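Entry 14. Structure prediction run on the chain below.
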Amino acid sequence: MNVWILFNEDIEAASAEAFEVRRFVAEGREMGFNVEVYHPEQFDLLVTEEDKGSILIDGKSKPLPDILLPRTYVIDTGYFAMAVIRQFERLGVLVYNGAACIETVADKLHTHQILVEQNIPTPTTMLAKFPIDVDLLEDKIGFPVVVKTLLGVNGTGVFLMEDRKHFKDLMDMIFEISPNIQLIFQKFIAKSRGRDIRLFVVDGEVVAAMERRAGNDDFKANISQGGSGIEIKPDQEAVDMAIKTAKALNIQIAGIDLLYGDNGYTVCEANTFPGFKGLETYCNVNIPRLIFTAMEKRLADFKKNK
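Output returned:
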């Protein structure tokens, strides 16, 4: 099995993302697979009917892999990385996750729209429109309120505004500095302050779960933001909600974050490039091996149906 990983950093970088790509390479090769890593900018996209069995890398034609694994955030690489992913799909390569679900999940509002349509609980969410109608926000969502950039990842671009004054001060400053920024406002789930559940889903199965806990009295529990974790055995409600969420968004490899609500769980976020360094730290699980095993099965079905 030939697997290419699309990654927008130096693989030897000190980041958690680069560490995880190195884990994929090591585990894949140990399993006997050919695993190669490419930066989106190494590709040249040529749309032609003449050669549908190869793609240009550094200006040279190279045979296509069996599977492409994108591990590059679209907010960092923009249109070009998505065009590369779509090109592989058009050329008949199995892409894990596909371009459509990556684009959908990158848009937090669109994600919540889809989940609500599928009767999956999510916090009440409002798209920002400047100037902000604070009275309307207070009436429909209330304070404290969570403020999120529409395309943030790993807990970045997420703030908790405790009251009306602090919220208005922040919005006035943002409007002066960046009036075109896209923000959403969400109901704060007080019961889940400083903790949530991360469930890792691979092809419709929850393969690992942990409760994440915030550090330094933060309200965000992301490990990348200083939090810690503990392995848990999720109850059936959490498992069902994670699987249903991944299915609704058509994500093959998903990190589903659940909040503790007053009447059960609610979906905080879904991720198409879920980090797993923290999960492997706190849980007895080998995420790359599980993903490669699922890929083998999916590839066999993919080839049968071609």
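The chain has a mean pLDDT of 90.
Filed with the rest of this week's runs.
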